[in-house]
Amino acid sequence: MRGLKDKRVLITGGASGIGAATAARFLEEGARVCILDRDPKACEAVRQELPAISEAIIADVTDLMQVEAAFANAVRVMDGVDVLINNAGISIRHKFLDITPEEWDRVIAVNLTGVFYVAQTAARHMTQRGSGVILQTASTNGIMGYPYYADYNATKAGVIELTRSMALELAPNVRVCAVAPGYVLTPMQRSEYSEAMLDEVNRKIPLRRHAQPEEIAALFAFLASDDAAYATGHVYTMDGGETSGGLASR
Fold first, then answer.
1. Range(s) of the domain holding residue 67
2. pLDDT (tens digit per residue) in 97-122
3. Residue 210: which residues within 8 A CB-CB, separation 6 or more?
């Protein structure tokens, strides 16, 4: 991709799944990368796997003070942040009637409030510098209904509207887009689905499989590059054709 070499990239939720794959892709493109994650063991593991990472910062995105300190650390290490991949997120598979207030608050805190904290912190830095790219992980769950994920669905719809609003306010100097993956074969997905459930989902997807994290990472790399210099304010779906046929809720 054009223009990614030596870019300074911060990736939240960067120690596993889509985040780790995205870190690997940006390193391949010649970028400098810091990851932010709340899991110290996962951070150490990804440091071993990707020794070129500039820093693995341990922080919880639901705590604004930790976010601001972590961002300042990334700026110190890389002398600035050009690209934010705002990716940290969790999900809890429950029937709507079984969601507890504590579970609801936790999912909202990580997936929406945390996204806001990180995005606003990055946007202040980028607007002061006069340029930057913010890319946020939404989901097809934020576009159409899925059972058993009411709290997660609500947060991802929120991320989509937050992205659109940010893009309007931060233009022309800062571009903001969202990526909405469908089913991706991440550790989080594997922990919630049995093999039989995975097979059932795959039968509903026109391409008959889950995405690999590396495929989502490639889309992030494109949107951050100079090749996507005219892209802002939009949500880019990568779901193997799933939502085109309205298959998700069946």
1. 8-236
2. 999 999 999 999 999 999 999 999 99
3. 183, 184, 185, 189, 198, 201, 202, 240
Omega of the bond leading into 172 within 30 degrees of 0 (cis)? yes
CA distance 83 to 174: 10
Contact of 139 with 235, CB cutoff 8 Å: no
Query: Which among 152, 183, 193, 236 is annotated as catalytic?
Result: 152
**From residue 19, how far is each of 9, 149, 221, 249 by CA, in Å?**
12, 21, 12, 26
Clarify whether 152 is annotated catalytic. Answer: yes
| Helix-, strand-, coil-residue percentages of the chain, each rounded to 5 | 50, 15, 35
In a 3-state reduction of DSSP, which class is residue 114? Answer: helix
Characterize the bridge pairing of strands 132-137 and 83-86.
Answer: parallel
Tell me the two tokens of residue 181: 């993956």
State the DSSP code for 154: H
Domain count, the chain: 1
Per-residue pLDDT reduced to its tens digit, 34-62: 999 999 999 999 999 999 999 999 999 99
Mean pLDDT of the chain: 95
Pull the structure tokens for residue 93: 């598979």
User: 28, 35, 26: which is closest to 7 by C-alpha?
Assistant: 26
pLDDT beyond 60 at 250: no
Confidence band for 248, pLDDT divided at 50, 70 and 90: low
CATH number where 138 lies:
3.40.50.720
Question: Is position 131 within any domain?
Answer: yes
Whether the pTM exceeds 0.85: the reply is: yes
